[in-house]
Amino acid sequence: MTNPHFVVFANEKGGTGKSTTAVHTAVALAASGHRVGVLDLDHRQRTTTRYLENRAATMRRLDTALPQPAFEVIDDLSEEALARSLERLSPQADVIVVDTPGRDDPVARAAILKADTLVTPMNDSFVDLDLIGQVHPDNFKITKPSFYAELIWNSRTQRAKATGKSVDWVVLRNRLQHIQSHNLQRVGAALDELARRVGFRVIPGLGERVIYRELFPKGLTLLDLQQIGEVGLGHIAARQELREMIAALGIPGAEAREAA
């Protein structure tokens, strides 16, 4: 088995845009010259798988080629099934993107242990922040890391002992509002404080835009401009947002090329 770079999207809270971000990351990396494999561990919801199946159907319908990762979904949730899928995907990929379910289970933990880049998407709110850190109700300062931060800390320590490799933990602020607010500033300040204590990077993710949901039935992303058709200024801004997110993730490999 070759040694691809593993990008694992993990968050035990649902509704954070995890699957949407995982798919856009995988397609953007494929468009930039990477050989990408995608593994979907959420065999019930299958959002990532459905997105890429829709993309394949669009290519057939339009008789066109788009950057498309190889992808699998694990129906048998066992560590053995995870190992078998990785054995199939690894020879044809230099990056493997793993989308874990919004819950804690042994297979998700096993996938986290393989992460070179661990991405935790969160909505820009104290509700989502509570997953990784608790804040004081009056001054909004971090009082202590939460259970999930401890889980990731233990996983990173375990991986470092086993492989000698460090894990780049990235907290992705999704659904950022495009206007400043006291809440935005307070969440940002609390995240920065927690990042220093726990050891993760904070980067901006994808904003709250209807376009991301509208693209799902066709399996398209904002990089597929020719297939989308007319693109307004808002879509251009969202496309730049996506590019900046991919650059901030810092995935090693081929240099990014302008997508058609």
Automatic annotation (TrEMBL):
Q: Per the UniProt entry, what species is this protein from, by scientific name?
A: Sphingomonas arvum
Q: What is the lineage of its organism?
A: Bacteria, Pseudomonadati, Pseudomonadota, Alphaproteobacteria, Sphingomonadales
This chain belongs to the protein called: Division plane positioning ATPase MipZ
Q: Which Pfam families match?
A: MipZ
Q: Which CDD domains match?
A: ParAB_family
| Annotated SUPFAM superfamilies | P-loop containing nucleoside triphosphate hydrolases
